[in-house]
Amino acid sequence: MSLISRYSQYDSLSPVYHDGKANNEIIIPILDKLLLQYLPKKAQILDLGCGEGSLMKELIGKGYQATGIDGSEGMLLKARENTSDGFYILDDLRSFKLTPTFHAAISISVFLHIMTLEELISVFQNTYNALLENGWFVFELEDEEVYKLDLGKDKVEVNSTNDSAWIMRKNFNVKSKTAQHHHIVFRLIEGEWQRSEVVLSTRAFTKLEVQPALEKIGFTIVNIYDVERDLAINDLNMAGTKVYVCRKL
């Protein structure tokens, strides 16, 4: 495990973070259509950037063997609370090393935190090494289109529970295809509200960057889907998103 470069920024957000069932209601039908129907029963699936484990819980409920890897210790703590039937690894996606074990690897809303093409290529290589022959790799990435749509404008989001609240302000840079996500977090601890701040960076990658990188490593690209045009998903949070389906052949 490489603790030096481990992406742990979500540790501060884990107490108030919820990716939850709403996202899975969109993602599971996509995976059913593009991946799961082709896997053997009890297939081994690697969830890259598993977060709080809500997607792993769905996969385990379908009978698959799920392993989650994440750089946030706080997120993995929530994942273990969410489902104890999965196997969890604390490590950085850019440097993890696993032997060929998995029938498939998936990643949802994670690679946007990879800020350089070189680091993204490292993630692809590590994933390739972890897959069995004929293994599948399905992931989604924001395309540069996202910064040309309404999503490319500065936004503010607010969420709250009985004992926590957070405000997120997004500042987009269309030219560099990057964004800054400024989080202000409030938590009720022992009767007192405590405030913290976290800034996360994200980046969009174009198909012209991603496709050659995958092919150079050895992946065969089965298809690249636009979630709106090809998969008929009209969700604002996924506008400008591409789903890549690849295989290790």
Characterization of this structure:
The chain has 5 helices and 11 strands, in the order H-E-H-E-H-E-E-H-E-E-E-E-E-H-E-E. The protein is of the alpha/beta class. The two termini are 28 Å apart.
Q: Calculate the terminal CA-CA distance, rounded to whole Å.
A: 28 Å
Structural class: alpha/beta
Name given to the CATH homologous superfamily of the largest domain: Vaccinia Virus protein VP39
- The CATH architecture of the largest domain is 3-Layer(aba) Sandwich
Describe the strand arrangement of the main beta sheet, using strand numbers.
3-2-1-4-5-11-10
Tally of helical runs:
5
Percent in strands = 35-45%
Tally of structural domains: 2
Specify the overall morphology.
globular
Q: What's the total number of strands? A: 11
Q: State Rg.
A: 18 Å
Descriptors:
alpha/beta; about 250 residues; 5 helices; Rossmann fold; N-terminal domain of TfIIb; single chain
Short structural description:
The chain is 23% helix and 35% strand. By secondary structure, the chain is an alpha/beta fold.
Detail the topology: elements first, then pairings.
Blueprint: H1 20-34, E1 44-48, H2 54-61, E2 65-70, H3 73-82, E3 87-90, E4 102-107, H4 117-130, E5 131-142, E6 155-160, E7 164-173, E8 178-189, E9 192-203, H5 207-217, E10 220-226, E11 241-248
Parallel strand pairs: 1-2, 1-4, 2-3, 4-5
Antiparallel strand pairs: 5-11, 6-7, 7-8, 8-9, 10-11
Helix pairs in contact: 4-5
